[in-house]
Amino acid sequence: MPIYRRARVPGGTYFLTIVTYRRRPILADAGALDCLRLALKQVMREAPFEILAAVVLPDHIHFLWNLPRGDVDYSRRVGRMKVHFTRSMSGTGCRTSSTNRSRREHRERAVWQRRFWEHTIEDEEDFERHLDYIHYNPVKHDLVSCPHLWPYSSFIRWVRTGAMCHLIPIS
What we know:
Blueprint: E1 13-19, H1 30-46, E2 50-56, E3 60-66, H2 74-90, H3 101-105, E4 117-120, H4 124-140, H5 155-161
Antiparallel strand pairs: 1-3, 1-4, 2-3
Helix pairs in contact: 1-2
């Protein structure tokens, strides 16, 4: 079994990509979005952190998370979010696809890919690059023509703060 090494910077900021099992578009459902919000709130009660930016697409999520000083455990938070979400989805009657033997042995539902992708933010330029990536992701996937049209994103919040004025085209 491979050993995955992840960067661990106490109190760091992390870019995360979490993908649904077989890229099923389960996050396109309003009920699933409610379950995701509840799962995140629960995880934040268990182990506080700050969500700096986010975008939820039908089959994956991107986040920028900032952990408390001295804390490095974003992996546990991602795992707990997946667990809370999956449990709440099973209560909604949402069908999950049949699972293979390995998933059954590990007591996993067919909701999330096992792994997630993580990148430790190195500096302000790196942060801005990943923030732009998050907010333009719905455009990249041809879901909308402009980031402000995608309702499941932190883009509008960032624009309201005035922090993203440089990204808005001036005509």
